[in-house]
Write a structure and sequence with these properties.
The chain is built from 28 helices and 20 strands. With 686 residues, it is of the alpha/beta class.
């Protein structure tokens, strides 16, 4: 009787254990194993809180508070983007978080991460460089993840060596190797797990920082494309993670020698835009393909990277966009806002670029087949959508669906040493998943299909933002449609309440991106909805937009925008040169002179010698000699001690054929600056 009772109790206990109530069950799914790349079928995933508690056969019973019926759909780990710039991409004037503290602006920026990444299944992002002023804010995001935002891990600033030039705000200079070591120790003490060594680091600084990082437990991610440190040397210094596939080229070729040769081979010029730079990175792989010696060097590098366990991020959609090979355009720089690359190649050059891109992708496949761990790092404004495009591009280049999904998941998590909690669907791992409506194994474009996204064990509701979507409608459907759309959607209960910070950020983006007409509409909507909320516009930015319209000959747009700025940003200081130009445009030279005299000592105006001088040359280039001379005279009167003002006036007279006055003013310039090369050369000629 006692034995029977004991068996009964054991059976009862087993039954009770099996009836444990879980928080969430995802039933009857196919599970992608990112380690083996195999797919198991008829599985149920059971979740407690934010963790996978069990994976069982779908035939078995369970007890859960909430159930998602999988219907034989594919379940994968959440994607990871290993190279993003969250601050630079989403804050135009992002030097300081102070600019965004009003009106919940910081939360708005974090919300954009959800819209741009989590909405597409990217559950983890690695920030690869930001202004140091933002570290406390983004480190707080890192330490306090939420189910409504992607996990974020930061690198701090991008490390560069001391140079006699102005650095971008997210580049952090180290003065020498010991200073570099101190920076590594500082970041370690602040709780950062990663650092980025950028391409402008000199070798002694690079080696010292890589060595110190090993001591401090910091993971180094390295961008090397300036022939200062090669990937091979970085590996020797103990670095494993390298950024961007295109950085392979300077690790096997000296740019100083081979860039001119590459340009000559394809009949192209040195890049003048960021998109041309990306395209030339593609051309380089066509250049390598044309020479067996260069190709052999590349294969040797692949072998070393595979042998030493090096990883390489992609930036694939950016280079594909520059070559016209992606159906979704992105660029390393979002501004100016555009849908096509800023390149200008003839038909033959485009054909060569297409072939070079095929070589680029073929080499990526060879690297993968040799054992180089590839991971996705989009490095662009719309990273989530670009991420999905990269999956399509990988598959198009011959990567299997399983290989592509492994690159999107486990490879990135392993490289960032986050695979202890993420990257695979296993008991004890974080419950971050993508449940696809259509199976990518049935066709890679199914990655674009609807998805159920699970983040931290909770079903994620895709974020909406009226401000963000207004920008999209303005750009894609036009001003009229956008106005109608806004009036309809602001009463739509499926959208959250309109936020000040979101509308304000939309205005910022459009102005900064050169979409002035759209920005004025967005601003008008902003002031209509929030009449008491300030929006401050920089006078320099206003002037730059106006001068761009002048150079492009868009004079009606110029007049509209100039009037708009005066009416809406009346407290913003005006640049006097631009005001003089507008006065001459609307009246005559005499009126422009009177305006200058009346306002040159007015504190509401910025009197800048360089601006006035540039305006004079603008007129000179247009062949408007009378206007040019008048403006040069204004500059001389305002800056009588400037040799350059007299030098420009002299050049104006020389252009007008008045050699006597040209000689007279060159002499004045030379008296103020006896070493002026232009005055010396001109007087010698005269």
């Amino acid at each position: 009787m006692k034995n029977f009772l004991r068996v009964y109790i054991v059976i009862l206990c087993m039954y009770s254990c099996n009836k444990k109530k879980y928080d969430l069950a995802i039933t009857n799914v196919q599970i992608f194993d990112s380690k083996t790349t195999e797919v198991s079928v008829n599985k149920t995933v059971l979740i407690n809180a934010d963790t996978i508690a069990a994976i069982i056969d779908s035939k078995l019973d369970f007890n859960a508070k909430k159930t998602i019926e999988g219907n034989n759909r594919l379940l994968t780990p959440g994607f990871i983007d290993t190279h993003v710039h969250t601050v630079g991409n989403y804050g135009v004037d992002s030097t300081s978080p102070e600019d965004y503290k009003a009106d919940n602006g910081l939360e708005m920026l974090r919300g954009l991460q959800a819209q741009h990444y989590l909405n597409y299944g990217v559950t983890t992002i690695i920030d690869m460089g930001q202004p140091e002023a933002w570290i406390d804010v983004t480190l707080d995001w890192q330490k306090n993840p939420t189910p409504n935002h992607p996990n974020i891990f930061i690198c701090g600033g991008s490390m560069v060596s001391d140079e006699d030039r102005r650095q971008p705000i997210h580049h952090i200079e180290v003065m020498n190797p010991e200073d570099g070591r101190a920076k590594v120790r500082e970041y370690a003490s602040r709780g950062l797990k990663y650092m980025k060594l950028y391409s402008k680091l000199h070798k002694p600084d690079y080696e010292a920082m890589a060595d110190e990082a090993k001591k401090q437990g910091i993971i180094i991610n390295s961008h090397v494309d300036n022939n200062r440190v090669t990937i091979s040397e970085g590996i020797d210094f103990g670095v494993s993670n390298f950024e961007h596939f295109f950085t392979l080229t300077p690790s096997i070729l000296d740019y100083e020698e081979h860039w001119p040769k590459m340009n000559e081979m394809f009949g192209i010029k040195m890049n003048s835009s960021i998109d041309e730079f990306a395209a030339q990175m593609v051309y380089f792989f066509g250049y390598i393909k044309s020479n067996p010696e260069y190709e052999a060097r590349l294969m040797t590098l692949f072998d070393k990277m595979a042998r030493e366990g090096a990883t390489l991020s992609s930036a694939l959609n950016v280079v594909a966009s520059s070559a016209g090979q992606s159906d979704f355009f992105t660029s390393f720089e979002y501004y100016p806002i555009r849908k096509t690359p800023m390149v200008n190649y003839n038909e033959d050059q485009q054909k060569q670029l297409d072939e070079a891109f095929d070589s680029f992708m073929n080499y990526m496949k060879i690297a993968h087949d040799k054992g180089v761990k590839l991971r996705i790092g989009t490095d662009c404004r719309f990273g989530g959508r670009a991420f999905l495009s990269e999956l399509i591009l990988f598959n198009k280049a011959g990567f299997s669906i399983a290989e592509t999904l492994q690159i999107a998941t486990l490879n990135g998590y392993e490289a960032m040493q986050l695979d202890d909690k993420r990257g695979t669907i296993e008991v004890g791992k974080m419950a971050d998943f993508i449940l696809f409506e259509k199976n990518p194994f049935d066709g890679i474009r199914n990655v674009l299909s609807d998805k159920v996204i699970i983040k931290d064990g909770l079903v994620y509701e895709a974020q909406k933002s009226i401000g963000h979507e207004l920008r999209t409608v303005l750009l894609n459907e036009g001003i009229g449609s956008a106005k109608t759309w806004f009036e309809n959607v602001k009463t739509d209960t499926t959208y959250p309440e309109i936020k000040v910070s979101e509308l304000k950020n939309t205005v910022r983006e459009l102005f900064a991106g050169g979409k002035t007409k759209e920005a004025m509409v967005a601003y008008t909507i902003f002031k209509t909805e929030f009449p008491n909320k300030p929006y401050i516009e920089d006078g320099g930015a206003i002037a730059n937009r106006c001068y761009k319209m002048i150079r492009e000959g868009h004079f009606e747009d110029l007049k509209t925008y100039y009037t708009f700025s005066n009416q809406n940003f009346s407290k913003t200081k005006k640049y006097l040169g631009l005001s003089v130009y507008m006065t001459i445009l609307n009246a005559d030279i005499s009126a422009g002179q009177d305006y200058f005299d009346a306002h040159k000592n007015d504190s509401n105006y910025i009197l800048d010698e360089g601006e006035i001088n540039g305006l004079g040359y603008l007129y000179l280039q247009e062949g408007k000699l009378e206007e040019a001379l008048a403006v040069f005279h204004m500059n001389v009167s305002a800056f009588p001690e400037s040799w350059n003002a007299y030098d420009s006036l002299a050049e104006g007279y020389l252009e007008a054929g008045n050699k006597v006055k040209a000689k007279h003013n060159y002499k004045k310039a030379l008296a103020l600056n006896p070493e002026s090369p232009s005055a010396i050369a001109a007087l010698k000629e005269l």
